[in-house]
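Lecture 7 notes: from sequence to structure.
We start with the chain below.
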Amino acid sequence: MLDAFSRSVVSADSSTAAVSDLQKLRDFVSSGNRRLDAVNAIASNASCIVSDAIAGMICENQSLIQAGGNCYPNRRMAACLRDGEIILRYVTYALLAGDASVLDDRCLNGLKETYAALGVPTSSTVRAVQIMKASSSAHIQDNPSEARAGKRLRKMGTPVVEDRCASLVAEAGSYFDRVIAALS
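Predicted structure tokens for the same chain:
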């Protein structure tokens, strides 16, 4: 996994030049606390994000929990929840580092082929990832849905500056889109 500093050094080394993109590194450092807040917002709500995404996927496709469906019996449902948590965890790693290589190398490499071999419907998985993307974006902006969360609503209480959050929401969204593209 490469962070912004490692990536700059590797790039400069391959071209036998000095590190030249110092402004990019300054921007990465200045966004550090916001990155940590975004990762914390996702990680502290991970179980809710994943379980809501899987529940939403099942609501849209009831055959998944019927006999012969991919979330039936309970062990398959548990595997589905586990996979959702793994995907979400690697998205947070990528967001923290500002680099998708860890997501590509350790999570997405061969995922579609593995799911095809196991008979997992990728369209349902893609839908669950789309729901996780929307939920994670809301948590990064500290704007989860009060109507749906009810008593379980957790706000981080971090001051949110819209223009600063927009870049992190877009970056996190790009990592989720990367997962969707790998499964499609």
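Points to note: The chain is about 70% helix and 0% strand. The chain has a mean pLDDT of 86.
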